[in-house]
Amino acid sequence: MFASKNPDLPAQREVLDTIAPRIAELMQRHRDARKLWMPSELLPTGDDGDAELAALRERARGLPDSVRVALALNLLTEEGLPHFHRLVAQYLGHDGVWAEWNNLWTAEEDRHGCVLRDYVRDARLFDMKALEQMQYQYIESGFNPEWKDDPYRLLAYTSLQEKATQTAHANAGRLAGQYEPQLQKILAHICADEARHYAFYRDSFSEVLRADTNRALAALAAIAPALAMPGHNIQGYAQMSEVERRAGIYGPREYLKLVEDLVRHWAIDALDGLSAAGRSAQDKIMQLPARLRRMAEYVESKAHTRSFSFDVIYRRAFEMAAG
Ligand SMILES: [Fe+2]
Ligand SMILES: [Fe+2]
């Protein structure tokens, strides 16, 4: 084995073992609440001589370019699953309840990329080769966030990331729905999964916060200020994110809101009996919403109407207001 960068790792692994029975309960809660769906249930079957497919294509023609670009980015994010399966295994281990969760979660997530890819292909929304090249590049580039071998950082990250994806899919679905209700329905199914994943990770992190408060706070304080976005080395990623922000699908405002919700849910401000390091992490977290608000305002104040163009939508140019 390789030497760990994290001297606290043995103690943290012990905490993860101690809370395993509770994690098993959270996993059972997840299984009880979910209604497992399959991508093909949400897409035309071809049984009707492709009439349904033709109608879907016709409706999809109305989708604005901004929504298409957001859909491309959200799809690519889902297709980053190999990175995340590996990270969960690397940080939470290869056996026991955590590994069981990783497999269940991966199987659920895998359907998200599948259904979106099948949909965009059925709907003829994209230059598929351009999309596939981005996906290839994204997977080949790897994703190795600097989490210093700290499994609590993984749980803090996944709590935030699940809510972020849920928000992005929900807002894209809302905007798509007036043109293409079928796409909104697909996105609603994905959102329901993300909401349950979020509840699992959030409540797992609650257990860690209870069992090992100071270290959990330090992990959250390291992760939350700047969520490492896995797709950042996709070509055109910054511009695609900017389209999402301007469309009101996902950006600093949405991130601010989900951080506020989580800080409230975990009652970070009420934690006491902390070490000096724990207190300093708590302060840093409590100051974060104001900092994120300033960052959102700064981005908005710098933005002007601008034109965008992406290979994935055949280099059509479209304009967007500052947002
Ligand atoms: Fe997903
Ligand atoms: Fe998810």
Descriptive report:
Helix content is 69%, strand content 2%. With 323 residues, the protein is mainly alpha-helical. The chain has one domain: Ribonucleotide Reductase, subunit A. The protein has a two-stranded antiparallel sheet. A hairpin with a 7-residue loop joins strand 1 and strand 2 (317-320). 39% of the residues are buried. The model has no long low-confidence stretch (mean pLDDT 96). The protein binds fe (ii) ion (FE2) (2 copies).
Chain-wise SSE layout:
Elements: H1 9-18, H2 20-33, H3 51-60, H4 65-79, H5 81-92, H6 96-123, H7 128-141, H8 151-177, H9 181-211, H10 213-223, H11 237-246, H12 252-265, H13 276-302, E1 306-309, E2 317-320
Antiparallel strand pairs: 1-2
The protein binds fe (ii) ion (FE2) (2 copies).
Residues 109, 162, 165, 193-194, 197 line the site of one fe (ii) ion.
CATH class category label: Mainly Alpha
Strand/helix succession: HHHHHHHHHHHHHEE
Helicity level: 55-70%
**pLDDT average, as an integer?**
96
The largest sheet is: 2 strands, antiparallel
- Overall geometry comes to globular
Classify the beta-strand content into a percent band: under 5%
Q: Are any ligands bound, and if so which?
A: fe (ii) ion
Low-confidence stretches: none
CATH 4th-level superfamily: Ribonucleotide Reductase, subunit A
The whole-angstrom Rg is 20 Å
Please give a quick description of this structure.
The protein has helices at about 10-20, 20-35, 50-60, 65-80, 80-90, 95-125, 130-140, 150-175, 180-210, 215-225, 235-245, 250-265, 275-300, and strands spanning about 305-310, 315-320.
